Amino acid sequence: MNAEIDLIADGPDELAALGPLAAKSIKRLRLERPPFLSTLTFKVGKSKDGRDVCGPLERIIPEPFVTFLSK
What we know:
Helix content: 10-25%
Low-confidence stretches: none
Distance between the termini: 23 Å
Oligomer: single chain
Largest sheet: 3 strands, antiparallel
Mean pLDDT: 76
C-alpha cells in the first residue's frame, strides 16, 4: 500500500486523538483486529502542499482491502 489519506478535522486536538479513536472503535464494534495491523505505523501530519494527512504509508499488506474507521 502506498497511500496518503486526506484528513478533515476541527483542529489539532481532533487530529491527535485519531489513534485512540480507532482502537476504541474496533473494541466498541467488536471487530476482529487482524495481526498485521500491529506492524503498521500511521503518521498524522502535513502533506507537501499543507493538507492534513495520514501518511505517507508504504507497506506491503497481506489483505486485498483495508477498512478505515472513524468515530
